[in-house]
Amino acid sequence: MQYTVNLKKRICSCRLWQISGIPCAHACCIIWHDGGEPDKYLHKYYHKDTFLKSYQYSLQPINGSHEWKKSTLEPINPPIPKKTPGRPKTNRRKSKNEPKKYPGKMGRGGMIMTCRICGVEGHNKRGCQQRTHENAKI
After folding, report:
1. pLDDT tens readout for residues 76-93
2. Are strands 11-12 and 5-6 parallel, antiparallel or unpaired?
3. Shortest CA distance to 38 belongs to which of 19, 52, 53, 17?
4. What is the rounded CA–CA span in Å between residue 8 and residue 16?
């Protein structure tokens, strides 16, 4: 994709330079190609003089909350909670890495199934192929 850069107007078709005030990568390449410095093309708000002007006046601290004037209006209360529709959720959803509620109880993870009909590992009685053959013969 090609971008159009205008150094006099300080714009680029990617619009990053106009939004931030800092020359984008496309503008920097053109500036360096012409032998210039990208710092000269920064927006005036990024200059040191502007920074110093903005903080030349000292900020006066304000009084603490104990010295504020008391209001004659009623205090604002939080909104009344409404009951949401549907069944309330009883427990939070636990992550996979969280320990189980009953640590002594074993799970089925890592257990090798053995079929009671054919004695082969990898499936149980319910998924046995011999069982389906026997049912088909009847």
Report:
1. 999 999 988 998 877 888
2. antiparallel
3. 17
4. 16
